[in-house]
Amino acid sequence: MFEKKATTIAEQIAQLQKRGLTIQKTELAAHYLSHVSYYRLGEYWYSMQYDKEQHLFKENSKFEDVVALYCFDGELRILLFDVIEKIEISLRTKLIYHLSHEFDPWWFQNFDLFYDSKELVKTLANLEEELSRTKDLTIKNHYKKHADDLRFPPAWKSLEQTSFGALSKLYGNLKHTVKSKDIIAIEFGAVNHTYLPSWLQCIAQIRNYCAHHSRLWNRNLPGSPKLLGAPPNPWVADVPKQHEFQKLYVHLCLMKYLLNIIQPENTFTERLHGLIEKYPNVDPNALGMKPDWFNEPLWSS
Fold first, then answer.
1. Interatomic CA distance for residues 196 and 194, integer angstroms
2. What pLDDT is recorded for position 11?
3. In sequence order, what are the residues at sequence separation of 6 or more whose Cβ sits closer than 8 angstroms to the Cβ of residue 260?
4. In 3-state terms, what secondary structure has residue 32?
5. C-beta of residue 63 within 8 angstroms of C-beta of residue 21
6. Which residue among 40, 161, 203, 232 sits deepest, i.e. has the most Cβ atoms within 10 Å of its Cβ?
7. Are residues 23 and 149 in the same domain?
8. What is the mean pLDDT of residues 183-203?
9. Domain span holding position 199
10. In sequence order, which residues have a C-beta less than 8 Å from that of residue 164 and are 6 or more positions away?
11. What is the DSSP letter of 291?
């Protein structure tokens, strides 16, 4: 049975010092621990420990470096959330436009267009829940005006209420015979439907980490995107290998690739490079960053 008593902030500081973490300003440590939980900060000092069982710290481990990692990670999430928002809005726009023209505004309810009917049922159930609790006047007025229509509101209304994750699942679940699936892939520089679903799923996962304030720094990511052999738009010469896909860098590259299409005059490179330079004690290798990444054709375009 797990038995562990809660500790005071003073006890937490004393315990960290006993384990070898240098804390020069106990007032600073007390301030952070009163606003950011010991458990959450522990995700950032974990890599500083040479003995993970006894929680003993390596020599020269400092609380100030823990704070720097935490602040860097927070700013990284804000930056990526901003980038992903643009990708999400673009994907939503393309799905609504192309499929509503190829079929009709209720294509997302048409089971004949999708491979996995069980997955579509889940997506539609989540969408129904979102629509039922939304305060959006467009949706409320639609249901009031069309009370006799038992369908969802049309795509341009309904899909504005759903998440990036649901949008990526809708796209990936479309049958390959749906022409719009390839059209959207081509417009995003992904050549055909083979590659884009994995990109979107990986980015949606990172979006969820950002939305829930979860650690991105030094995290092993679960997604494994399929990379194009010869992308039609600027890419990286030093392509990450398969074993490097668990790190953030390859996912950052995919975001930048899509963003260069969506917003050609973007400042993603400058903002990311500036953030890394702002925190010199943060090891870029923990993100899988390549040397001189910012000079790659992808990042300098």
1. 6
2. 95
3. 233, 234, 266, 298, 301
4. helix
5. yes
6. 203
7. no
8. 96
9. 69-300
10. 84, 87, 88, 91, 200, 203, 204, 207
11. T
d(CA 87, CA 187): 12
CB 103 within 8 A of CB 110: yes
Task: Give yes or no for residue 3 having a pLDDT over 90.
Answer: no
pTM of the model: 0.93
- Alpha carbons 282 and 67: distance in angstroms, whole number: 11
Q: Tell me the two tokens of residue 239.
A: 């392509």
Question: Tokens 């522990």 — which residue?
Answer: 42
Tokens at 99, concatenated: 């499929």
In total, how many domains does the chain have? 2
Instruction: Indicate the angle between helix axes 196-211 and 249-262, nearest 10 degrees.
Output: 110
Report the helix count and the strand count for the chain, using DSSP H and E. Answer: 13, 2
Q: Are residues 95 and 128 in the same domain?
A: yes
- Closest among 198, 179, 194, 167 to 98, alpha carbons compared: 179
Residue 144 covered by a domain: yes
- Look up residue 186 and give its amino acid: I
